């Protein structure tokens, strides 16, 4: 059976991690990558970089499916821009879930979101569009993660937490149950988030938020 071709947007380190998940899924073949002008013609994990953002309007005639594989730490703006452009151009934006992750059948995961190896999205959780649930991250029951968020490696988001759009939760951070985190926040590595956070809040690594 021929798998549908997927256009991967990005050619850096996060794209490599996404490619690994996509290959293990065996739902799509990777038709090509989109990178910078300097990256065109190079290969990433043996997949060819076939164009840049400027080529996306023309490539929709060849590729129905596309996926944003650009990383996100300080800001979600580049991922949001490309995601919206792809939607406007008419690409289909599938969710990507590692066969080694667990997404409860009682959870919701939005278009263009990736759930990576050993991550868990538990019952009643809702993860929006264009999100990254990175390796070993835990999204517990009844959590709401809005669009364009990145829950990084081994982060723990406990039950009933609400996370606003465009927020980054750093590696090995732990968010106490019932907490509300605003939009466009940056929670650094190893945080303990014990109280609600306003929009645009930024917390440096190793600082305890209490």
- Tell me the count of domains: 2
Look up the CATH topology of the largest domain.
UDP N-Acetylglucosamine Acyltransferase, domain 1
Instruction: Assess the beta-strand content as a share of residues.
Output: 25-35%
How far from one another are the termini?
A: 54 Å
- Shape, please? globular
Q: Report mean pLDDT, rounded to a whole number.
A: 95
Model regions low in confidence, pLDDT < 50 over at least 5 residues: none
- β-strand number: 23
CATH architecture name of the largest domain: 3 Solenoid
Structural class from helices and strands? alpha/beta
CATH 4th-level superfamily of the largest domain: Hexapeptide repeat proteins
Share of helix, binned: 10-25%
User: Total helix count?
Assistant: 3
Strand order of the largest sheet: 6-9-12-15-18-21-23
Largest sheet: 7 strands, parallel
- What is the top-level CATH class of the largest domain? Mainly Beta
Estimated radius of gyration: 17 Å
Order of helices and strands: EHEEEHEHEEEEEEEEEEEEEEEEEE
Outline the secondary-structure elements.
Elements (H helix, E strand, L loop, with lengths): L4 E5 L3 H13 L3 E6 L8 E2 L2 E5 L4 H4 L5 E4 L8 H13 L6 E2 L4 E2 L4 E2 L4 E2 L4 E2 L4 E2 L4 E2 L4 E2 L4 E2 L4 E2 L4 E2 L4 E2 L4 E2 L4 E2 L4 E2 L4 E2 L4 E2 L8 E2 L7
Parallel strand pairs: 1-2, 1-5, 2-4, 6-9, 7-10, 8-11, 9-12, 10-13, 11-14, 12-15, 13-16, 14-17, 15-18, 16-19, 17-20, 18-21, 19-22, 21-23
Antiparallel strand pairs: 3-4
Please describe the structure with a list of short key phrases separated by commas or semicolons.
14% helix, 2 domains, 6-stranded parallel β-sheet, 7-stranded parallel β-sheet, alpha/beta, UDP N-Acetylglucosamine Acyltransferase, domain 1, 3 helices, Rossmann fold, 210 residues
